[in-house]
Amino acid sequence: MLTRGMKPNMETYAHLTHGFCNEERNDEAKKMFKSMVNHDCRPNSDCYFTFIHYLCNGGDFDTALQICKESVEKGSSSSLPLSHLPRVL
């Protein structure tokens, strides 16, 4: 996509990240999420929550906490259901 001069949007990155998570390919999901941020594509609160959810399910609590803190710092946490996270983190 990028090699053809097309710029993916947040939805594209979110679907790819979600797909990698569904296949339990969390390393690829992390790379995709990082790529989204590096390409100035701001994740929304649904994207953050889904990624955090899958990271927790995969046992990667350190990264989940880091992403959660990032979402708060970037102001995307306003609709995150953070009440679920203390039970998991």
TrEMBL record:
InterPro entries: PPR_rpt, TPR-like_helical_dom_sf. It comes from the Eukaryota. Keywords: Repeat. The keyword Repeat applies. PPR repeats lie at residues 9-43. Pfam families: PPR_2. Belongs to the PPR family. P subfamily. NCBIfam families: PPR. This is Pentacotripeptide-repeat region of PRORP domain-containing protein.
